[in-house]
Amino acid sequence: MLSGFIYTRFGINGPTYFAGGFAALVTVFLWVFLEETNFDRDMPHEPPDPVLTVDGDAPAASVYVVEKPKTDDTTRVEEVVSSTESKQEGPAAPDDNSHSYGRTTTPWPGPHPFKLFTVSPYSFGILWRGVFQSLAILRLPIILWVGLAMAFTQIYYNTMAALSSGILSAPPYNFVPNMVGLTFLSPLVAIVPGAIFAGWITDRCTIRQARRRGGVSEPEDKLILFIIPAILNPVGCLMMGLGSYYGAHWIVFVLGEFVVTVAGPLVNLLAITYTFDAFHSLHPTERRGPRAGVQPAAVYVLAPTLLAMAITFGFNYAITPWAFDAGFRTWGVSAAGVGLGITLTGLIMMRFGKRFRKSGAGYYRRVINI
Fold first, then answer.
1. What is the tally of structural domains in the chain?
2. 4: how many CB neighbours lie within 10 A of its CB?
3. 258: in domain
4. Angstrom distance (rounded) from CA 218 to CA 216
5. What is the pTM of this model?
6. What is the C-alpha separation between 91 and 147, in angstroms, rounded?
7. What is the pLDDT of residues 51-110, one digit of tens each?
8. 168 to each of 62, 102, 243, how far by Cα in Å?
């Protein structure tokens, strides 16, 4: 949105210079005010879980759900909580405000270049495994599908950005660059209710489906919401493509951008939360070291993100022939069809996702324990 005004005032190189200068200022700010945080922290000992017993029998199956006692006076439900402290051997966990490797924090928030920063002994293993594991799990169908869904939203946003200048700056609209930039207020405004609405409706849908199953929630439950972007995205693409082809008022194109952007956060949120629910509970066998260090980085999120960005980068070269060479009517109809097809794959995953999760669990465990 700001680039249009910068371009109008400083020319074609203006946005590049402003972006480079801003990046340089951010670099200086990070170096001066953010201290190095590369340190390791010991895992605190976990206290024993409470045990529920019923009349001296075996412990109950869950510490969270206790059945209502019967009317018989002899039935009692007692909660027995162990008061003995854990006597596990090993050093005590350090205080949350202290660094390991003998480093201490100071009131000065900036860097300490006169000190030698101690690198984690697991740094190479974490780096190597972070790259290897992200590439290795790309063979899992769920990861491939999530990467495709994430790429879909980014591709359509990049296409929308390319169309804005090419369509609105040409007849019959003849917008100057700064006015073309102002049209990006539409996706800027749309992203806020889109993100808020996506989170709210996903939570409501998950809770509702779990109540129907008596408290059991499946990762595929929320994928029914893909029906929403399956409707919104084709409508927005048709507004942008057909509106431009037939010379409709510019507000049709801008509202099309709004509709497409509203659907984007929901697709991303559903894809990310689905892979999180599918693989988050699978942990490496060791709780410390390079394997455990990679797991907090969530390779199940890094892998589809890597795939999505690679697809998006390659598709950027197809935007011009797809939209400008083929014609805006062809682009609008084909983009609506492609968007509909990709979003409907979410409904297909509702049918086969659980099978993919079970079949890929063993391979995922092998990869994260390498």
1. 2
2. 22
3. yes
4. 7
5. 0.73
6. 43
7. 444 444 444 443 334 444 444 444 443 443 344 444 444 444 444 444 444 444 555 665
8. 61, 60, 11
